[in-house]
Write a structure and sequence with these properties.
alpha+beta; two-stranded antiparallel ribbon; 4 helices; 22% strand
């Protein structure tokens, strides 16, 4: 089976999201995180997580990019349980079985998404409110550059200036 794994090429996610997911964690789209929030009121790093962040249940962090990877049944079962626990503890699911049912649906969505994609395919996500008050998610694959090497045009550096 295939699933989504976070990938980081630089430290930019540390600056974009409140909590960045480490590289190589299993991830789901995570639109459920915003289901009960007024999207128009989101600001800053929370708005950025809404707009384009994949969610890692293990670290509760976000990632801009994910890659398709092989996943074992044991890892998938552990991930499903971790997601169900999150639904109970953070979102108030009424019981473990209800949480497991929703977790299975979320996991199934991701395995279906990955099914026909080659291993190491990079995916990005864009999320926006739809005209019915829901959330619309769009996934796109990213192709590696071909031809001449890609020139780096910027670096993200820590601000060491404490002045306002």
């Amino acid at each position: 089976m295939k699933f989504l794994r976070t990938i980081r090429f630089d430290a930019s996610d540390d600056h974009v999201f409140e909590r960045a997911a480490p590289s190589d964690e299993w991830a789901v789209p995570g639109g459920f995180l915003f289901a009960d929030q007024p999207v128009d009121a989101l600001t800053g790093k929370t708005k950025q997580a809404f707009a384009n962040g994949f969610f890692s249940p293990r670290s509760a962090g976000h990632a801009t990019l994910v890659a398709v990877a092989d996943i074992s049944q044991d890892e998938l079962d552990d991930l499903t349980q971790a997601l169900a626990t999150l639904f109970v503890e953070r979102f108030g699911a009424p019981d473990e079985q209800s949480a497991l049912n929703v977790a299975h649906d979320e996991i199934g969505f991701v395995t279906d998404l990955c099914e026909d994609l080659p291993i190491n395919t990079l995916l990005a996500l864009s999320r926006a409110p739809d005209d019915k008050g829901g959330i619309k998610e769009r996934f796109r694959t990213l192709d590696p550059p071909t031809g001449a090497p890609h020139a780096r045009i910027w670096d993200v550096v820590e601000d060491t200036n404490d002045a306002p």
